[in-house]
Design a protein that fits this description.
The protein is of the alpha+beta class. It has helices at about 35-45, 50-60, and strands at about 5, 10-15, 20, 25-30, 65, 70. The protein starts with a strand and ends in a 5-residue tail after the last strand.
């Protein structure tokens, strides 16, 4: 059983308490699941949710791109 130290709470926990960051490479997140859950909950509780929704809306308003070339209407 491998252990790892969380970089948020600094507690030594079992490696299975950490989510995968890059599963193919075998790399796990530096923060444990509990700390990551608390961080995400606080992050999206504030104005971050509004910022996220604005970015999504802004992304939908962009002109259609094809293979990196931006096409805009001539009309």
């Amino acid at each position: 059983m491998n252990t790892k130290v969380c970089n948020h709470c600094w507690k030594e926990k079992d490696e299975s308490d950490f989510n995968w960051r890059y599963k193919v490479l075998g790399i796990r997140n530096p923060a444990c699941r509990d700390c990551q859950h608390a961080f995400n909950k606080d992050y999206y509780k504030g104005d971050a949710k509004e910022k996220h929704l604005q970015q999504v809306k802004k992304g939908q308003e962009r002109p259609v791109s094809l293979q990196g070339i931006m096409f805009t209407s001539i009309y």
